Amino acid sequence: MTAPLQDSDGPDDAIGGPKQVTVIGAGIAGLVTAYELERLGHHVQIIEGSDDIGGRIHTHRFSGAGGPGPFAEMGAMRIPAGHRLTMHYIAELGLQNQVREFRTLFSDDAAYLPSSAGYLRVREAHDTLVDEFATGLPSAHYRQDTLLFGAWLDASIRAIAPRQFYDGLHNDIGVELLNLVDDIDLTPYRCGTARNRIDLHALFADHPRVRASCPPRLERFLDDVLDETSSSIVRLKDGMDELPRRLASRIRGKISLGQEVTGIDVHDDTVTLTVRQGLRTVTRTCDYVVCTIPFTVLRTLRLTGFDQDKLDIVHETKYWPATKIAFHCREPFWEKDGISGGASFTGGHVRQTYYPPAEGDPALGAVLLASYTIGPDAEALARMDEAERDALVAKELSVMHPELRRPGMVLAVAGRDWGARRWSRGAATVRWGQEAALREAERRECARPQKGLFFAGEHCSSKPAWIEGAIESAIDAAHEIEWYEPRASRVFAASRLSRSDRSA
């Protein structure tokens, strides 16, 4: 099992002596790789193509009148409390005092979701959701609690999955699953102020047979549903970018920004990088390299010395795009509507709308994460120009929140399209719809080294799309480099053994 590495006593204590390692990418995977390798006594430098660290952890800070305004998380914004590696680094980096609850979808009874009857409050949606869910069943003999379970599971899938993906999953909440749940006392799992929702996370955790009875496609999607609707998710009070920045401050080696790698040549004992530095292009010969950039970016580089299987996985790994749009509002108007946090499922192009806590100076306004979309939904927004996109989001969202139409309510807008961003070309690797064995085979192939070239990033992990996955892969890469013996050393050892055999 992946675990943080133990400190060595110093550079000379590295196994086989200290190694010189170049890390490509200053996202969380690259920073953790460098941090762990230095703890083992190796010498590390990081080169990053963009002008900032953090990768897909990106906190956008609005400017306010007279000082810095509120911020919006345009990248990673939450951490399941069960992600032990991420929580370990938060503690190790002294960020425990910044850990706060993250309010998620349906966690606020006053939030909204769409139905055939229009937008409903979460606290009053149960009857409509149950009626709509029961209408599609071949039989209605189930207990009311069972129908409530099915209705909220269906609503959660609809809120999290891209629209095109939801259609198939909706039909997977079938008879076998409902029959199993019908035999369970669901009273302990009722939640919400009116106890008219079901705690899906707790139910599936307590009853693994229910999870096992799900059709394969639904079972593979459940992790995301349960993580995103869990009551045990956290955030960092001063912004998620505190994590990469605190890590970077602990790294002794140089972190060079604006260093775009355009080619990687793998040789028997070295790796040559072609690097664009402004108007200049230089080559660097490295002993060891860890590549942490997404494969969507890697496949645009000139790659030589890779075996064909590795090239295939680099070119075939699929990434979901994601688009986030945040409004800097004059005031947290949603609080007057009774919403204290969490998120609404908005439907349409907007999909999900989050209400971050307004913790700063009220005079500086508040942030509304107006729209969070993934997959084809994100692509639809990305095809629009900024003005058209922002106007569409405001128009759709103002049906639910008419306060947005008030003059001067929206002070500024920020957007981030991860699918079109040059340094990411996608938000995350999502392996929905794949069998477990295929997922693991792809993960292993993504992480498999090419001689002195190693790989890390969420695409190389068992938890793609999460910070936890990036950290897991970084620790694994540091382990591999620590124990790696270069070809020259192997040849020397083999020849020495051969001479010993001959003399014997």
Automatic annotation (TrEMBL):
Biological processes annotated in GO: amino acid catabolic process
InterPro entries the record matches: Amino_oxidase, FAD/NAD-bd_sf, Flavin_amine_oxidase, Flavin_monoamine_oxidase
Top-level lineage group: Bacteria
Positions annotated to bind FAD: G75, A76, M77, R78, V261, E458
Residues annotated as domain Amine oxidase: 28-481
GO molecular function, one term: L-amino-acid oxidase activity
One Pfam family per UniProt: Amino_oxidase
Residues reported to bind substrate: R78
UniProt protein name: L-amino acid oxidase
Cofactor: FAD
Keyword annotations: Oxidoreductase
